[in-house]
Amino acid sequence: MASIYGKNRAYVALLALTVVVLCSQCKTSKTVQAQPPQSPQVKPAPATPIDTKKAQLGDKTWEPEWDVFIEKSIPPEMLGWQVPRDVKRFCPRFYNMNEVDKRAFWAYFFQALAGAEAGLEPRTRAHHMQPEVSVPDPVTGMSGQTEGLLQLTYGDSKRYGCDFDWKADRKLPPKDPRRTILQPERNLACGIKILENQIIEQHKPLFTRTSYWSTLQPGRLSYRVFAKEMINPPEACGLAVKSAPVTPQTTTATVKAQADQMKGSQ
Q1: Which 8-state DSSP code applies to residue 145?
Q2: At what angle do helices 252-265 and 49-57 cross, to 10 degrees?
Q3: What b/e readout covers 149-169, taking b as 16+ CB neighbours within 10 angstroms?
Q4: CA angle 181, 80, 246 (to 5 degrees)
Q5: Is 45 exposed, middle or buried (0-12, 13-18, 19+ CB in 10 A)?
Q6: How far is CA 159 from the centre of its chain?
Q7: How far apart are CA 255 and CA 64, in angstroms?
C-alpha cells in the first residue's frame, strides 16, 4: 500500500513539473510574440530645387522629419515589383535598389509633389474652378477646395480613409495649423494612401491622365512643374541629368541647417 502511495506521489510531482515547464514555455512564447515590429531603416532624402531656393530666399523649408515620416509610412507593396514600370522615368534603377533607397526615393517623390502642389507650404489652400475639380465635397459640401501640402480634400476621408476631422476643423480659422487637413503628417499619410490606391490597388501607371493630382498627369502644365522638381532623386536611382542646381549630396537636412544659419546671422 505504501509502495502504491509513493508511486502516486511521484506521479503527481512529475505532472506538476511538466505543467510548470509548459507554462514557462507559454510565457516565453507570449513574450516573443509581444515584441513590436522593427521600424524600417531610413536615410536622408535629397532636397528638391524649390527647397534649396526657399532656403536661399530665407523662406520656410521642407522639414527633414517629414521625410522620415514618409519613409516609415510607405507600405511594402510600394517597394516591390507591383510598382508601375513608369517609375523608371525618374528612378531608372528602382527595381534594383535596396528598400532603404526606395523609401528615400518616395520621400523625395512626395517632397517634389508637395513642391508642385503647394510650394512646400503646409497651410496652402486653393479654390479650383475647373469642372473636373470643382465638384461638391461629400463631407463639407463645398466645391473645388483643396488644402495642405498635397492639396487634398475632406472627402478623401471617406474615399481613402484619411484621418481628417471636418467637425473639429470647421470651428477653426481657415489657415489654423491645428486643422487636421493642414497637419503635415496627416496630409502626407493621406497622399500615400491615395497613391497606393492608384498604383497598387487599381494597377494604374504612376503618371496617368486619371491620377488624383494634375501634377502627375502628363501633358498638363502642372506636370512640367513637377518634373522640374524630380531632377535630384537619390543617387541610387541612377537618373542622368545634364545640369542641376542641386546635387544628391544636398539633403533636406543640410538645406534646413543652411536656412537656419542664414536666419541666425540676420
Answers
A1: E
A2: 10
A3: bbbbbbbbbeebebebebeeb
A4: 65
A5: buried
A6: 18
A7: 9
User: What pTM, to 2 d.p., does this model score?
Assistant: 0.84
- The cell numbers describing 6, all together, are 509513493
> The C-alpha cell of 190 is what?
493621406
What one-character-per-residue DSSP string does 172-185 give?
S-TT-TTSGGGSHH
- Residue 10 makes CB contacts below 8 A (sequence gap 6+) with none
- C-alpha 62/C-alpha 219 separation (Å) is 27
Nearest partner of 72 among 36, 104, 33, judged by Cα: 104
The answer to whether 120 and 242 have CB atoms below 8 angstroms apart is no
Q: Give the DSSP H/E element, type plus range, for residue 146.
A: strand 145-147
Residues in the chain: 266
* Alpha-helical runs (H) found in 74-134: 99-118
Answer with the residue of higher pLDDT: 99 or 34: 99
- Could you report the per-residue pLDDT of 44-85, keeping only the tens digit for each? 999 999 999 999 998 999 999 999 999 999 999 999 999 999
Joined together, the cell numbers standing for residue 168 give 473639429
Q: Residue 251 has what DSSP assignment? A: B
CB 43 within 8 A of CB 107: no
Q: What is the pLDDT of residues 109-139, one digit of tens each?
A: 999 999 999 999 999 999 877 766 668 888 9
